[in-house]
Amino acid sequence: MLARGTLDGASVYPREVVKQALRHQAAAVIFAHNHPSGVAEPSAADRALTRRLKEALTLLDIRVLDHFVIGEGPPASFAERGWL
């Protein structure tokens, strides 16, 4: 776990994500977070953050395999939607 949010948001800093990926000597990462509303549809903010994280990790040759948004029902997958 990298961040704990409130009912309407969480602060995720690319530097912390990169730091943890390097600490674990990761070649790839998968992100996941929940939407307390129960709606698993990724928001524009989710997409923008994922893009920023991917850009930062790409500089270090660390791949982003997927980002799942979890709500009620099946999770939404960025990879399945072609967003990665």
Description:
Helices cover 30% and strands 20% of the residues. The protein has 84 residues and is an alpha+beta fold. It has a three-stranded mixed beta sheet, covered by helices on one side. Helix 1 (14-23) crosses helix 2. The longest helix has 15 residues, at 44-58. The two termini are 21 Å apart.
Key descriptive features of the protein:
three-stranded mixed beta sheet; globular; 2 helices; 84 residues; alpha+beta
Number of helices: 2
* Average pLDDT figure: 91
Structure class: alpha+beta
Biggest sheet features: 3 strands, mixed
The sequence of SSEs as H and E is: HEHEE
Low-pLDDT stretches? none
| Straight-line N-to-C gap | 21 Å
Assign a percent range to the helix content: 25-40%
Q: What's the number of extended β-strand segments?
A: 3
Relative strand content: 15-25%
Work out the radius of gyration.
Answer: 13 Å
- Tell the overall outline: globular
Looking across the biggest beta sheet, what order are the strands in?
1-2-3
Quick structural overview:
By secondary structure, the protein is α+β, with helices and mostly antiparallel strands. The protein is 30% helix and 20% strand. The chain has a three-stranded mixed beta sheet with strand order 1-2-3, covered by helices on one side.
